[in-house]
Design a protein that fits this description.
The protein is of the alpha/beta class and 529 residues long. The chain is 50% helix and 14% strand.
């Protein structure tokens, strides 16, 4: 019997509360993490952890998945079996006794098929895997497959299934009254052969003219076209009730077997179904990125208190999965001179892409996955919050600006110094003067909260307020605000992010030049008229 709780992604599955990270479904969707890893059996937020040891444990599990293709295929193969067992358990409470009996048999057949496959295909990989998780799983499978319980289960399954599989027909006895009307009926026997209809045509086709115990002297057609659905259901229920009475003793003994062995020994596999799906889907993503020749690295993990975030050669995996052209890589380093960044640049210059990339890399690190960068040094965070453009429905009373401000205010209710906040084109619903004023107040708040933040914005003039914000916050122990610029070469966007003070006029000048709206080109056009 498997008594110790087991997990592929948590070293101590009984104590994972302290590892939880505050990340909402909206945030997962905003940074498009759900596009990269789409799960059916659970939510991605369940797998985030802030515990460094848990991340390292998980990294080893993922390494085995990536380096051993047979392992990935095996888990992909057993996933449907385990999902079917879970579904059978769910529907057994909604069906009758006979159906429960048959479902229980199917469940155990699936379980044995799963264990046999693991025994055949997984145990030979025992010496190749390096992670503690898969070594523990191999030990558990080996213990089960060689146990007397398992051998006894196979024997009893053969005995019990034979009772069902051998039944091809039933003989029904009907008592009649003096007027030959049916009074009551019952099952006489369960038979290993099917009855023949007894019609002349049937006999001719079989070249069989002799009567025997399995030839009907007159056919009884249970379902006629003229019968209503209720009549058909009533007849079916009558047969099922009769069979239930016959199988009652078998069902009782079978349930005892299920309770005494199967439930205790299958739960460890059923519990890890969501984990298997998470690992399989994550590995599929990593293989797809590798197939494109893109870099992946396991981050160097630092304690949360260090608030480290140094990313070299980072790229956005969502963009990488959607395009075939070469990705532009960037560096992004948070340090004592910049824990909060204002990122400005031309429209469609890569500001949103890099903002999401930061969120994705932090998320992948805290899921225990390699990250999309050449090199990374990362501390876990306790929470990730986003403030992205939204199609909110509550703007009638508040207005778009009111809705944006309310969402920003909600972030301040939750953040601490170990939070990561990502803002993309926040406060774009109002004029630049109002937006810049509110943004300055917001940045001051983030500085005093000492969190990490990347603020992607069209407000180029906001950068002018950085010295004033830093001077005010330094006296109260706030962290430094700095600026990043999405580069542009001439009139072409480079998608390169550099640490510099922006020059909003240069962007406007380059864009005006590109579209023929410079004063020189306009004068030239006008003078020709």
């Amino acid at each position: 019997m498997i008594t110790k709780p087991f997990s592929l992604i948590f070293p101590d599955p009984e104590n994972i509360k302290g590892a939880k990270v505050d990340i909402s479904r909206e945030t997962v969707e905003s940074i498009e993490l759900d596009y990269l890893i789409s799960l059916k059996n659970s939510m991605l937020s369940e797998y985030f952890t802030a515990d460094v040891e848990t991340i390292k444990y998980r990294q080893e599990t993922v390494r085995d998945m990536v380096e051993c293709p047979e392992l990935s295929k095996l888990l992909l193969d057993i996933l449907p079996m385990l999902s079917d067992i879970t579904e059978l358990r769910r529907i057994q409470g909604e069906t009758g006794v006979t159906e429960n009996y048959l479902y229980s048999i199917t469940e155990i057949e699936l379980y044995i098929e799963c264990i046999e496959k693991l025994k055949r295909d997984f145990l030979p990989l025992r010496d190749r895997v390096k992670s503690e998780a898969f070594k523990l799983m191999a030990d558990a499978v080996g213990e089960l497959a060689e146990s007397d319980y398992y051998k006894d289960l196979n024997r009893k399954l053969d005995e019990l299934t034979s009772k069902v599989h051998e039944v091809k027909s039933i003989a029904i006895g009907v008592n009649l009254d003096n007027e030959l009307r049916p009074v009551d009926a019952g099952v006489i026997s369960l038979n290993p052969e099917k009855f023949k209809s007894g019609t002349v045509i049937d006999k001719i086709l079989r070249l069989d003219f002799k009567d025997d115990d399995y030839t009907c002297i007159a056919p009884l057609v249970p379902f006629l076209k003229s019968q209503s659905d209720n009549q058909k259901i009533a007849l079916t229920h009558a047969f099922n009730n009769a069979l239930s009475d016959i199988f009652k003793s078998s069902v009782k003994s079978w349930r005892n077997i299920v309770r005494s062995y199967v439930l205790d020994n299958t739960d460890f596999l059923i519990r890890i179904v969501p984990e298997i799906e998470f690992l399989v889907k994550s590995t599929k993503l990593l293989r797809a990125l590798e197939a494109k020749g893109l870099a992946l690295c396991y981050p160097e993990l630092k304690p949360m208190e260090e608030k480290a975030c140094e990313l070299y050669g980072l790229y956005n995996p969502c963009v990488a999965m959607k395009i075939d052209t070469e990705m532009v890589k960037n560096d992004l380093v948070f340090d004592k001179n910049g824990m909060i960044y204002i990122l400005t640049g031309p429209n469609r210059g890569g500001k949103s892409v890099i903002t999401c990339a930061l969120g994705l890399i932090q998320s992948m690190a805290q899921l225990g996955l390699p990250v999309t960068a050449d090199r990374a040094v990362i501390s876990p965070v306790e929470s990730i919050y986003t403030h992205f453009p939204t199609e909110a429905e509550d703007t009638i009373d508040k207005g778009r600006l009111g809705e944006e401000c309310e969402r920003l205010n909600a972030i301040f209710d939750k953040i601490n110094e170990y939070s990561l906040v990502l803002l993309d084109e926040s406060l774009s619903s109002t004029g630049s003067y109002e937006a810049s004023y509110i943004a300055s107040e917001v940045l001051t708040g983030f500085s005093l909260a000492k969190c990490k933040c990347l603020f992607s914005t069209h407000l180029h003039e906001l950068s002018a307020a950085v010295p004033e914000i830093n001077a005010a916050c330094a006296n109260e122990g706030g962290v430094a605000v700095d600026t990043l610029v999405a580069g542009i070469h001439g009139s072409e966007r480079s998608f390169e992010i550099v640490r510099a003070v922006p020059d909003g006029k240069s962007y406007a000048r380059d864009i005006a030049e590109k579209y023929g709206l410079s004063s020189e080109k306009i004068r030239a056009k006008v003078s020709k008229k």
